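Assemble and predict.
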Amino acid sequence: GIQVEQSPPDLILQEGANSTLRCNFSDSVNNLQWFHQNPWGQLINLFYIPSGTKQNGRLSATTVATERYSLLYISSSQTTDSGVYFCAVATGTASKLTFGTGTRLQVTL
Amino acid sequence: GAGVSQSPSNKVTEKGKDVELRCDPISGHTALYWYRQSLGQGLEFLIYFQGNSAPDKSGLPSDRFSAERTGGSVSTLTIQRTQQEDSAVYLCASSLAQYRTQYFGPGTRLLVL
């Protein structure tokens, strides 16, 4: 099956700093989503981005499908950005998502 | 609008008992998914329903697991003869159609003693 690798596994930032999270995948995709899992365990959809670039406030994402990677940018980080960020993809005719192992982000004051 | 809802929020059961977990998808969403999240296995797919098509059961870990979706809306995931390794958070998601954004519910935390 498709492999999804996320880096870095852990990240500690001071409030106000910027960061880039990376997701590499091993096959072409029909769906790629970035999620934020908050401390209560809720998975919050950030972006649906199988290709191209999108922005939503302080967050933006870029997927280069031909090179099989996606990047999530967080600017001016806040403590509420803490949690685990997951990349998930679907490939071929399948709709099921395969998740990466996540990047755990901690934003400190 | 209302998101995906799941019940119960938490479930504690004894090994060998059966459990039923419920998912109410977003109204109008034709696709419904079950995943589970455990410490050892991360987030993994279980089963997928799309309209009236046969479900994709390729992620179910054993024949103790089954799911149904009635009337194209509510879904129930049933685990028979629960084992301790079934302890996990069971997550439901729905999407407007195939290959579209999946929205997740808050999950059911299952603990098998």
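The mean pLDDT of chain B is 95.
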